[in-house]
Amino acid sequence: MEKILSTIPGLIMALLVAVLSKYLESLLPLPFLGASVIALFIGMALNYIRKPSEFIQVGLKFTSKKVLRLSIILLGSSLSIGTILNVGRLSLTVMFYTL
């Protein structure tokens, strides 16, 4: 239980960055930058300005390993077979071995 509770501050920090990046994405007149790229830049800037404390790093490590991996798997599973076949058989092979 203590291990789960120790991840909460980092999860909240990641959630705040995600919400902020989604908001900033909505302010852009043209959709040339996605929220994930904006979140990446925000995270890099925050890390450069001030390293996160160990209190927050536990949740950030959990988020960057487990939650990100699950998100990528869910994103890949949302692709239809038709879309994958349109892209090509080589990409299907690459996707199969990377998941």
List the helices and strands and how they pair.
Layout: H1 2-27, H2 35-49, H3 54-77, H4 81-87, H5 89-98
Number of extended strands: 0
Q: Count of DSSP helices?
A: 5
- Strand percentage lies at under 5%
Number of individual domains: 1
Using the CA coordinates, give the radius of gyration.
17 Å
Structural class per helix/strand content? mainly alpha
Terminal residue distance = 30 Å
Low-confidence stretches: none
Order of helices and strands: HHHHH
Q: Tell me, what's the shape?
A: globular
Helix content: over 70%
Biggest β-sheet: count, sense, barrel?
none
Averaged pLDDT: 83
Description:
With 99 residues, this protein is mainly α. The chain has one domain (2-98). It has 5 helices and no strands. It has helices spanning 2-27, 35-49, 54-77, 81-87, 89-98. α4 (81-87) packs across α5. The protein is globular and about 45 Å long.
Q: Summed up, what is this model?
A:
With 99 residues, this protein is mostly helical. The protein has one domain (2-98). The protein is built from five helices and no strands.
Can you tag this structure with a few keywords?
99 residues; mainly alpha; 5 helices; 0% strand; globular
